[in-house]
Amino acid sequence: MPETQVKSLLIDNTKCITCSICVSLCPHDALTIVDRVPEVTGKCRVCGLCASSCPPKAITMAAKKFRDESLAEEIDGDIVVFSCRRIKSTADACVISLLCSARIDISLIADAFMKGAKCVIVSTCGKNCRNYPGSEEAKSKVNAFKKILKAIGESKDRILLVEGDFAKAVESVKGKFTEKVEKADLLKSITLNRDLRALIAKMRSITEEGNAYGEKIPREKYEKILDNAIDRALKISIIMKNLNGIATVSELVKKTSLSYKDIMDTILEMKKRNLIEIDVGDELIVKGVSS
């Protein structure tokens, strides 16, 4: 079985890349790599930070109602709030209750926009978070998502982060956006980019706490690295969307807003990651690789 249950979590052995991000982020030191796969060896409090930060999405919650697909089914309405279950509010909006704000996944936020939401609010407990720094990780993801929105030409104000009662935040965005996100499909594709997810997952710890040797990367420098990764993920998503199985570089130039150089640089990067195959004839031909 590729998917094995580890107490409160499900680990897909075929997807796990043994990056150990889940182990380093766990607020309760509950995870350890055993035989190249994460296992719960301490007390897991089911905050979901490991699942929401896993680059290849190899970790999910054992309880079906807490999985991405189940949470996505609850999404309905122009304003969607993802909130820690401890926060009470009388706000008039679609509220998705999470075990902890640490559970928020950038791909789950993209699901909200895919289903027609015009604005998303993420509500945390701040420093009162029982799974701290889970709330700070949620904040980091929201900030990264703002960058992704900007990259596809959308307002970063379509997503807000608040602490505690979110009623005022809901009122502040009512009627602010009249149109749905036009490129929600690209948004979803970008949030599934494994390299980008890894950078976002590491962002807060690397810039604030440092690596295993105590070395930190300045926030400004990391932001630039993240911006470049988002730009690369966007170009990959655009090419994959317009590939339709097979296409020449000239055809991709016509179908997309990308320059010839952008496409060449991007497909070479995609080839390195085994995302595509390339044939050389009278012209370079790009083929999609079945996953």
Automatic annotation (TrEMBL):
Keywords: Iron, Iron-sulfur, Metal-binding, Oxidoreductase. InterPro entries: 4Fe4S_Fe-S-bd, 4Fe4S_Fe_S_CS, MvhD/FlpD. Coiled coil: none annotated. It comes from the Archaea. It holds the Pfam family Fer4. One of its GO terms (molecular function) is oxidoreductase activity. Residues 7-36, 41-64 form the 4Fe-4S ferredoxin-type domain. This is Hydrogenase iron-sulfur subunit. It comes from Geoglobus ahangari.
